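Duplicate of #3305? Posting structure anyway:
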């Protein structure tokens, strides 16, 4: 059984990250988001701009999910 602490952290580029941390990723363009949820190796990110994320794929979206291994 996974304990509560393991659900609140993930490894990104060899560094432990937690909810509230900011990570960068590439979806059409390089961009960053704040971690609002961690589920295994999947991070739910919130756009740092009130306009949402940029790009053709997720442009305008306020939230997106990204695998931790695809972040830095």
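Output from current build:
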């Amino acid at each position: 059984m996974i304990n509560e602490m393991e659900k609140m952290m993930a490894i990104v580029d060899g560094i432990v990250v937690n909810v509230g941390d900011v990570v960068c990723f590439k979806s059409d363009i390089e961009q960053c988001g704040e971690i609002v949820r961690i589920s295994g190796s999947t991070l739910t990110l919130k756009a740092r701009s009130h306009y949402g994320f940029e790009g053709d794929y997720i442009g305008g979206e306020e939230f997106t999910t990204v695998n931790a291994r695809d972040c830095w």
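Confirmed duplicate; merging threads. Residues 15 and 51 are 29 Å apart (CA to CA). The helical segments are 4-7.
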